[in-house]
Amino acid sequence: MSRTSRDQVSIDQPVLSKNDRIAAEVRKRLDAAGAYAVNLISSPGSGKTTLLEVLGRRLGDRLAVVVGDVQTRRDAERLSEAGVRAVQVETGGACHLSAKNVADVLDEVLGDRPPELLMIENVGNLVCPASFKLGAHMKAAMLSLPEGDDKVLKYPSIFRQSRVLVLSKIDLLPHMDFNVDRVVRECASLNEGCQTFCVSARTGEGMDALCAFLLERCAERATA
């Protein structure tokens, strides 16, 4: 028997409702701890972990990271070796983090001295993570130049929801057929409030501006 769109809503809605309730609880715990959380979403290989390593070197103890992967602890180990407080979540096959995944490790990642900034590195995927709230204060989409400049309208949900678009590996621009203006324009057509940062974790280009933006959000949260 074929599944109708009405059937899909009746199945999915209870799952999302439960997730949203847990996400609200996570947000309360973050606010009580004074931590500003960013849900970072991108495809595999876009450079999320490398970006977080660079942020860790700049921010030190002010940063902590929840790392989501289907399997292995490799990214958390990389970040820990770089001096970043990182806690790994293995989803065991799920293509996204859920609010419960974050809630389960929140005490561990906040610790006795909660960070000012909590980055949640979601599972590499531009589709599924967009549907699940995690309790973060902001979603940030990340797109690397090797992925191509046509992805915004192909995967509109995440770009429509994100406050920030990070274009990574911008140092490759002279060697690639990538139209930055097209990406910015198409993202603005979905989300006028989305702010774009062109960065290279390898060369450091754009990292000062991105870091300053994130710290400003932390300061706003602290005074709210």
Neighbour order of strands in the largest sheet: 3-2-4-1-5-6-7
Q: Kindly provide the radius of gyration, computed on alpha-carbon positions and rounded to a whole number of angstroms.
A: 17 Å
Domain count: the total is: 1
How many angstroms does the end-to-end distance come to? 52 Å
| Main β-sheet description | 7 strands, parallel
CATH superfamily: P-loop containing nucleotide triphosphate hydrolases
Summed up, the helix count is 8
Low-confidence stretches: 1-5
What can you see in these coordinates?
- There is one protein chain.
- Helix 1 runs parallel beside helix 4.
- The longest helix is centred in the N-terminal third of the chain and has 29 residues, at 5-33.
- The chain has a single domain (12-223), classed as 3-Layer(aba) Sandwich (Rossmann fold).
- The chain is of the alpha/beta class.
- The model is unreliable at 1-5 (pLDDT under 50).
- It is globular and about 45 Å long.
- Strands 3-2-4-1-5-6-7 form a seven-stranded parallel sheet, sandwiched between helices.
- The termini are far apart.
- It has eight helices and seven strands, in the order H-E-H-E-H-E-H-E-E-H-H-E-H-E-H.
- 44% of the residues lie in helices and 18% in strands.
Compact overview of the structure:
This protein is α/β, with parallel strands linked by helices and 224 residues long. It has helices at residues 5-33, 48-59, 74-81, 99-110, 151-154, 156-161, 180-190, 207-223; strands at residues 36-42, 63-69, 85-90, 117-121, 138-144, 164-168, 195-198.
